[in-house]
Each structure stands twice: as structure tokens, then as C-alpha cells.
Design brief:
CATH architecture of chain A: Sandwich
CATH superfamily of chain B: Immunoglobulins
Distance between the termini of chain A: 37 Å
Strand content of chain B: over 45%
CATH class of chain A: Mainly Beta
Helix content of chain A: under 10%
Radius of gyration of chain B: 13 Å
CATH topology of chain A: Immunoglobulin-like
Number of helices of chain A: 0
Oligomer: heterodimer
Strand content of chain A: over 45%
CATH class of chain B: Mainly Beta
Number of domains of chain A: 1
Structural class of chain B: mainly beta
Distance between the termini of chain B: 41 Å
CATH architecture of chain B: Sandwich
Number of strands of chain A: 11
Order of helices and strands of chain A: EEEEEEEEEEE
Chain lengths: 114, 112
């Protein structure tokens, strides 16, 4: 049973560029949440997708957007990259029917903005 | 403002010593509480969780945590640590429907 997978593992971009990160949830899960983990800090909630719609959103600007596909996989898009967007981006999947009480995390995508 | 505070950023201890990591939160209403661990080079894994019921919860690898509602605390404990417990530990709180708010993390180093 595959767990949460994310791609790519590492990414280097320059300021002003756009980036797309991908996530496949754990088998049987229907909800995907994205988190940003800056160096030395805990993960910060970006947003959550369920039934292909954004259900909750954290305190992140509109430059951060996402999408969920019918197979429950998800993308995180960041436009107009800033140096401060350098971080580990984590995807977590969960099951809505369980009240999304437990989330399983992927290995993350390390984004470096130069 | 809603927040999660972890008392220590770094803890160094010897094998067989006892470990206790503090976590306090400020949230109104019912919350779900979690401790996650991130071993070197690995992704976040759930150590234990509290939703309701017995405030003393047991997790994997001999860890346990106690929820004290009056103190808004959810402290993590292990009676005797091993070198393999070297990792970063995160306390997290969820007011519901999956939005997790994490503390800043505690880096634990266990020396042989």
C-alpha cells in the first residue's frame, strides 16, 4: 500500500518564476492538505482540498493556489516566487469520512528560490 | 490568537534518560491533539493522538502523552530513551476538519 508520494523531490527556481508541486494521496484517502515548512520551523497550513474544491485556507497570499483531480491527487502552484518561499512543502492526505482526524504526510518537496 | 508552544527548541540527553517535552496551546473549544516525529532523512510520522476519553494516551515506540485540559497542555514522555529516538518532535493541534497547527518543534539528540 503506497503512502503519500510527492514530486519532485527537489526544485530550484529563481525569483518571479512559477512552480507546480504534485501530490498523490495514500490509497483510499480523499482529502489533501498542503503545508509549508520553513527551516527551523513547524509546518504551516496552506490549504486543504476535498471533492476538487478548496475547503480551508491558511494565511497565505493568492499567489498560492491549488487543484485536486478526480483521482484525489493534488497540485500546489506558487506564482511570482519570492526568496521567502524557499521551504519544504509537505502534502498530507486523510479520509473525510473519519473527520480528517489523522493525516499522513509525504516526504515533501524542497523548493529553493534564488 | 490561536497558538501552539513547545517549551524547548533543543534537548540533549543520554541513553536511558527520561524525556519529557512540553506543549501548550491556546484554542477555544474542543481540539484534537497530536505529536509527530521527524527522524533524520524521513518524513513526518504520527507518534500519538488524543481525540477524547482517557487523557493519558500511548503511542508507538514507548511514547505516551498526557492531556491536561485545565492547563491546555499535551506533554510527551518516554521513560527511557534510545539513540534511535534522535529526531525532531512536533506538537500539533487541530480544531477540527484537518487543519493542523504545529508548534516550532523540539530537536532531541540522544547521546550513546
Amino acid at each position: 500500500d503506497a503512502g503519500v508520494t510527492q514530486s519532485p523531490t527537489h526544485l530550484i527556481k529563481t525569483r518571479g518564476q512559477q512552480v507546480t508541486l504534485r501530490c498523490s494521496p495514500k490509497s483510499g484517502h480523499d482529502t489533501v492538505s498542503w503545508y509549508q515548512q520553513a527551516l527551523g520551523q513547524g509546518p504551516q497550513f496552506i490549504f486543504q482540498y476535498y471533492e476538487e474544491e478548496e475547503r480551508q485556507r491558511g494565511n497565505f497570499p493568492d499567489r498560492f493556489s491549488g487543484h485536486q483531480f478526480p483521482n484525489y491527487s493534488s497540485e500546489l502552484n506558487v506564482n511570482a516566487l519570492l526568496l521567502g518561499d524557499s521551504a519544504l512543502y509537505l502534502c498530507a492526505s486523510s479520509l473525510s469520512a473519519s473527520g480528517i482526524r489523522e493525516q499522513f504526510f509525504g516526504p515533501g518537496t524542497r523548493l529553493t528560490v534564488l | 490568537a490561536q497558538s501552539v508552544s513547545q517549551h524547548n527548541h533543543h534537548v540533549i540527553l543520554s541513553e536511558a534518560a527520561s524525556l519529557e517535552l512540553g506543549c501548550n496551546y491556546s484554542y477555544g473549544g474542543t481540539v484534537n491533539l497530536f505529536w509527530y516525529v521527524q527522524y533524520p532523512g524521513q518524513h513526518l510520522q504520527l507518534l500519538l493522538k488524543y481525540f477524547s476519553g482517557d487523557p493519558l494516551v500511548k503511542g508507538i515506540k514507548g511514547f505516551e502523552a498526557e492531556f491536561i485540559k485545565s492547563k491546555f497542555s499535551f506533554n510527551l514522555r518516554k521513560p527511557s530513551v534510545q539513540w534511535s529516538d534522535t529526531a525532531e518532535y512536533f506538537c500539533a493541534v487541530s480544531p477540527g476538519w484537518g487543519k493542523l497547527q504545529f508548534g516550532a518543534g523540539t530537536q532531541v539528540v540522544v547521546t550513546p
